[in-house]
Amino acid sequence: MKWTQAKRLLGLASTRRATQAAAIRADESSPDSLRSGIGASPRAASLCVASGKGGTGKSVVSASLSYLFSLRGRTLILDADLGVGNAHILQDLTPTHSLVDVVEGRLEVGSIVQECGEQLHLLAAGSGVPRMAELNSYELHLIGSGLREVEANYRYLVVDSAAGVSTQTVGFAAASDVVLLVTTPDLTAMTDAYAFLKVLVARCPGARPLLAVNRAHDVEEAEHVAHRIQDVSNRFLGQRPTWIGWIPDDPAVVSCVNRRGSVAALEPESPAARALRALAVKLLEEFSRHHPRGVGLRLVGEMGYSSDIA
Length: 310
What we know:
single chain; alpha/beta; Rossmann fold; 8-stranded mixed β-sheet; 12 helices; 42% helix; globular
């Protein structure tokens, strides 16, 4: 089925979920496999897309997954790369307000949400504001409590995380239902991916992150990368991340970035877009195994942040 045909079908209501679930399992790589539904929840099912280092394509993956999720229901992108966020670029937006306004007390979270597509909205992080990378507990409380109010209006929440292992970055990951760790075949990327896993597991011993290999030349290279990270994690952490897919090194991605859009939206028949659709299906199936906890609720009540000014 071509993407133009699939887009017309994606909006149709499901009447037989079991049949559609079987179709998903039979063809995870086709666009129409995204039609299967998940029961409504008062909180958005949340995904944190993380990486140990910059340059792994994390924001590219976040943008495409957000677009694909929005074909199924209202989706909110939270740019959690606070102070140097760029999620707005891949939505072709120039935000007039951001989380900087929330932290500085000018606006509430709900008033800075910006529309960037049908059923797709963005909370921009702000750019060029260094102090946003090290917020105190009260400022994080402001973001968390505001997010708690708005995320109930969405079916999915995608957290486009900052790279690295800061307390703030790991906090957003720990507050999310599902964590997707993105790496590349580059040795430094693999090393930093393990470093992120180590810090996340130390903070949340029950965390079971997922792993995706981006910009691989073929499946054999992707498998090799995934197995190396899994083996080291199993040896030193006593657990291994679940490898759920890979994305090929595809020139269409660079072209779409330069056009300020996601490859899933602008070049849906490209190899990268097909791989991202398969990844999205697996993530949606993963969501069905979790009861949405609410990122805002977790930030406010369970991550050690306080409503008192630090």
